[in-house]
């Protein structure tokens, strides 16, 4: 695919919950979270009957490229494109694809998915998007889904995965943080209602309303406990989240109490032997008509 030079593209103001696109820690966080989610969900496309049937795949807002690279490693007949608005993410993803020796079947491009998806009509067999509620406002969904359908081939799969806002956990301070985060997500227009489940209950409706057929869903409950490798990855993810979402939460007037003290207490509580957390995610997928 030939795309306009990346330097010629203008950037929209960021709607992403980490406002600074050059933030190095966010690259680390997205990398940790990507591996954590894929592993806990049971792989790249756990609910799809025959993923090897998809020859051309797009991942919208691909972050550090982990999902794309693992898909290329798992399915040798797949060619994949990942797009992300952050040049830092895209540069890192390209390096990782080289290291994983899949660069011949994988491309990454800097692209603002909220403008348009710069691909031809009827091009992909599967269009994937995960954790994009982080930058999509409620009013962005119709255009995004219509773009995903436009570039998908007839009968191709449109697949969206989103997490709940609040994780069910036994740390009072972490719960306080999630309440502030939920407030900011609602005030900024990312949520349809001010509730803890976020947008996951809307996914099937959105896909159906905006033209996908035979929409199905699968829910995942990701469990994290102190003292396990998954629990450690979860701790690291939360550590970055607590630090890097402060500007976003502040911008939308949702800080309540002493933010730094709440974060410190949350990290302490997460290190207790008894700490556990459940993070619910849902995948919704449907098909483009013939
Ligand atoms: C929470 S991360 C998810 C990354 C990856 N999809 C995953 O599930 O691991 C969200 C990603 O969206 C990207 N992003 C934010 N705004 C965007 C936009 N307007 N267009 C494309 N990507 C965007 C961010 O740079 C970040 O890499």
TrEMBL record:
Pfam assignment, any one: Methyltransf_25
CDD domains associated with the record: AdoMet_MTases
InterPro entries: Methyltransf_25, SAM-dependent_MTases_sf
Any GO BP: methylation
Alphabetic keyword roster: Methyltransferase, Transferase
Domain Methyltransferase: 57-154
Organism per entry: Ktedonosporobacter rubrisoli
GO MF entries: methyltransferase activity
Name of the protein: Class I SAM-dependent methyltransferase
């Amino acid at each position: 695919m030939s795309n306009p030079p990346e330097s010629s593209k203008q950037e929209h103001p960021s709607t992403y919950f980490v406002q600074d696109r050059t933030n190095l820690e966010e690259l680390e966080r997205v990398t940790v979270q990507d591996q954590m989610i894929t592993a806990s969900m049971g792989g790249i496309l756990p609910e799809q009957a025959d993923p090897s049937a998809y020859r051309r795949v797009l991942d919208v807002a691909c972050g550090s490229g982990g999902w794309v690279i693992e898909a290329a490693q798992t399915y040798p007949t797949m060619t994949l494109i990942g797009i992300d608005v952050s040049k830092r993410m895209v540069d890192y993803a390209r390096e990782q694809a080289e290291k994983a020796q899949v660069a011949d079947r994988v491309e990454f491009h800097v692209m603002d998915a909220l403008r348009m998806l710069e691909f031809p009509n009827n091009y992909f067999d599967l269009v994937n998007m995960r954790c994009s509620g982080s930058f999509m406002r409620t009013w962005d969904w119709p255009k995004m889904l219509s773009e995903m359908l436009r570039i998908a081939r007839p009968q191709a799969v449109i697949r969206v995965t989103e997490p709940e806002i609040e994780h069910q956990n036994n740390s009072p301070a972490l719960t306080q943080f999630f309440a502030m985060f939920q407030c900011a997500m609602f005030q900024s227009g990312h949520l349809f209602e001010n509730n803890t489940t976020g947008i996951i209950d809307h996914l099937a409706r959105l896909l159906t309303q905006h033209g996908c057929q035979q929409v199905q869903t699968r829910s995942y409950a990701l469990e994290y406990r102190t003292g396990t490798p998954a629990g450690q990855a979860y701790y690291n993810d939360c550590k970055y989240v607590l630090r890097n979402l402060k500007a976003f939460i502040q911008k939308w007037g949702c800080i309540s109490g002493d933010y730094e003290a709440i974060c410190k207490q949350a990290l302490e509580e997460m290190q207790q032997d008894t700490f556990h957390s459940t993070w619910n995610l849902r995948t919704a997928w449907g098909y483009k008509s013939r």
